[in-house]
Amino acid sequence: MQNLNIMIVGVGGQGTLLASRILGAVALKKNYDVKVSEVHGMSQRGGSVVTYVRLGDKIHSPLVEKGEADIIISFEQLESMRWAEYLRCGGKFIVNEQKIDPMPVIIGKAKYPEKIIEKIKENCRKTIVVDALSIAKKCGNIKTVNTVLLGVLAKSTQIEKEVWLESLKETVPSKFLDVNLKAFEEGYSLQAQ
């Protein structure tokens, strides 16, 4: 397999770290070499969180440089804009429609940027926009936004669905497993690629 560079970006509390652990488990089940690196600021207070997941035959470094990400999964609109320059030409963007105001917006020192998704689409033809928060609510838990987005990702890879489901079952705590499996299925059913 050719190396695959994936970035998962969002804000603290959205489940980006769990998503990266599930993705890492998927890679290991496929016998890929995988490196995961978590970089986050004040994640407990809604700060920016980014996780690099690199998988392939042989991975030497966990970091993804600007212009090298094959796929960026963004859990929040502003974070998609913040990390867009990391996507390679021809890469794929999976963007959650959700907006979470950062502290400067909350205290009135800044305005949330407008038309972020339109700008992303102008620069990336392979953009998938998902209302993952609404889907997660429909599934019964807003904290399953991450597994909705993983379902979308899974559908766009060549990795068998069963591998994703096994990894979810091994990684997600049992008391939250059913709702996460439901959310994953909802995300998976969105894209017929």
Keywords:
193 residues; alpha/beta; Pyruvate-ferredoxin Oxidoreductase, domain 3; 6-stranded mixed β-sheet; 8 helices; 41% helix; 23% strand; globular
Structure summarized in a few sentences:
The chain has a single domain (4-190), classed as Pyruvate-ferredoxin oxidoreductase, PFOR, domain III (Pyruvate-ferredoxin Oxidoreductase, domain 3). It is 41% helix and 23% strand.
Describe the structure.
This protein has eight helices and six strands. The protein has helices at residues 16-29, 77-83, 103-106, 116-123, 132-139, 145-155, 161-171, 174-190, and strands at 4-11, 33-40, 48-56, 69-74, 87-96, 127-130. The protein has a six-stranded mixed sheet with strand order 2-3-1-4-5-6, sandwiched between helices.
